[in-house]
Design goal:
By secondary structure, the chain is of the alpha/beta class. The chain has two domains: 83 residues, no CATH class; 246 residues, Alpha-Beta Complex (sialyltransferase cstii, chain A), CATH 3.90.1480.20. Strands 3, 9, 10, 11, 12, 13, 14, 16 and 18 form a nine-stranded mixed sheet that branches. Strands 2-1-8-7-6-5-4 form a seven-stranded antiparallel sheet, with no helix packed on it. It has a two-stranded parallel ribbon with strand order 15-17. It is a single-pass type II membrane protein.
Length: 394
């Protein structure tokens, strides 16, 4: 009798536990569902009688809709962070640190959109989407790899809705593209490519000038024409190998960049350098995209490559002016277009591209880089090509 009672109790116990056990197995084996993140839109308002910025906030779910800023919000295609705090309804943004904390002290990321800061809590990666087509590395939007000459704790803060990426190619000669280029909110140029005397074809406006360690001295010697109005850049960003960028007085390129920073800071020009982490990132991207190690393949990344890496970090849309397709020289073997638009009697573009592509060492893989840019053009940020006009077909 006693054994029968215990038997019934065990049957009841297991009967109650079995559904719980099965439910637990199903629950823990289920793919975790992503949390719908909170979105906070912060419209910045400039009061005519004040120099400080105030903020208003609104909330929505992350469904692709961004709350409209109030009519008095500043409308701008480029936003540059300032070293100050912006406070609103239980929201505090440290624009110097590039992070935000809400009332719950959750750190979230910031995006700039048409003059309003859109702050969102980024969800975890959805493992069910691993099979989808490769998209742009989120790290391209991390600007902490561009370090201020003035203070190494500060880094580049700038965002542009549309950018004109102006190559130095002779393809731009005779295009009369200058007015169109200058109409872009941000114009990005390279090395010591001048605007004076070429305004009709290349424009005169400059927002960012990306300079290689090998060209920084040329920029310094021509600083009166390159770094003063018209065409004075807002930002000068210098890249180079570690031995050229040392901050202990032994880095030749860094020393010249620091000299330019000291001379032109009063004119509003901010000078930054690629950190060695960012240079290594550019190398890593090249290897991922081409399957070739940059060093073992005996090549140097071009300033065009570093400029595209930077452009993808600060631009929502990029129009590249004066860049040919990777097979242009095969289709136009007798092309006489100069390598640089400002050196009409210098090297020809195709001979420069071909010789560098075949070089066993110390060569730029110009055509290989262009094939990568073509693939990137189908990702975000969107990239298009003008003068010559073409789009990626691969």
């Amino acid at each position: 009798m006693l054994n029968q009672r215990w038997t019934r109790q065990w049957v009841i116990f297991f009967g109650l536990c079995l559904p719980i056990f099965i439910t637990s197995i199903l629950y823990f084996n289920e793919t975790p569902k992503l949390r719908v993140p909170k979105v906070v839109a912060i419209g910045l308002h400039q009061h005519p009688s004040q120099n400080n910025l105030t903020a208003s906030t609104s909330h929505s779910t992350h469904d692709g809709r961004t709350p409209e800023p109030k009519p008095e919000a500043i409308k701008s295609d480029m936003f540059i962070f300032s070293k100050q705090f912006v406070n609103g309804n239980n929201v505090s943004i440290d624009s110097g640190g590039g992070r935000m904390k809400d009332a719950g002290n959750e750190t979230v990321s910031m995006v700039i959109n048409n003059g309003a800061m859109v702050v969102e809590d980024v969800p975890a990666k959805d493992p069910s989407k691993d099979h989808e087509e490769h998209v742009a590395d989120p790290a391209v939007k991390d600007l902490s790899g561009y370090v201020s000459i003035v203070n190494a704790k500060n880094h580049l803060y700038v965002n542009c809705t549309k950018c004109a990426y102006v190559s130095s190619s002779g393809q731009l000669l005779g295009t009369n593209a200058g007015e169109l280029i200058d109409s872009y909110p941000c114009v990005i140029r390279m090395n010591n490519a001048p605007t004076k005397g070429f305004e009709a074809d290349v424009g005169s406006k400059t927002t960012v000038r990306v300079v290689a360690h090998s060209a920084i001295r040329q920029v310094h010697s021509r600083r009166s024409s390159l770094l003063k109005d018209p065409g004075q850049p807002r930002f000068l960003v210098v890249w180079g190998p570690e031995h050229q960028m040392k901050t202990d007085g032994k880095g030749g390129a860094y020393n010249v960049a620091a000299s330019l920073s000291k001379e032109f800071s009063k004119d509003g020009i901010q000078v930054f350098v690629f950190s060695q982490r960012q240079v290594a990132y550019a190398d890593r991207v090249f290897e991922i995209e081409t399957g070739k190690n940059r060093i073992s393949s005996g090549s140097w990344l071009s300033t065009g490559w570093f400029t595209m890496i930077l452009s993808r970090g600060i631009c929502e849309e990029i129009t590249v002016f004066g860049m040919v397709t990777e097979d242009y020289c095969k289709k136009n073997p007798t092309s006489k277009v100069p390598y640089h638009y400002y050196q009409a009697s210098g090297s020809k573009e195709c001979s420069m591209y071909t010789s560098n592509e075949k070089a066993k060492k110390n060569g730029h893989r110009f055509m290989t880089e262009k094939s990568v840019f073509a693939r990137w053009s189908k990702q975000w940020p969107w990239i298009s090509f003008r003068y010559p006009d073409w789009s990626a077909t691969k």
